[in-house]
Amino acid sequence: MQRYGLDYVEIFAPVLRYNTLRLVLFLVASNGWIIRQMDVKTAFLNGYLDEDTEIYMVQPPNFAVPGMEHLVCKLLKAIYGLKQAPRCWYLTLHEFLVSISFERCIKEVCLYIKRVGDSMVLLTVYVDDITI
């Protein structure tokens, strides 16, 4: 069981506003753009924990080596059930998108834009659902 202030501090992860998605869909439809949607499978398992965060868990049943059941596992990445898992996933995805030259919108932090010459790519994020 996690305790606020001891096991986690920040858990907020932003999500796309419905009106922003409607605006993006309007732009796609009115300009004849191509749109794609994707779902990131097991997204929360891809989020990295902060370096200063130490979380330990009891070994799952049938995982421990006989005689070593008393040992625990130190988590390096988030797992389902962690209160900060959605935030870790969002921050990991954000770092990746910035590394490939996407810019985050100032007013809508789940809208990313990448300009290539005269073209533009709009990418929206709602937890693990991405629209490009």
From TrEMBL:
InterPro entries: DNA/RNA_pol_sf, RVT_2. SUPFAM superfamilies: DNA/RNA polymerases (SSF56672). Residues 2-132 form the Reverse transcriptase Ty1/copia-type domain. Pfam families: RVT_2. Transmembrane segments: none annotated. This is Reverse transcriptase Ty1/copia-type domain-containing protein.
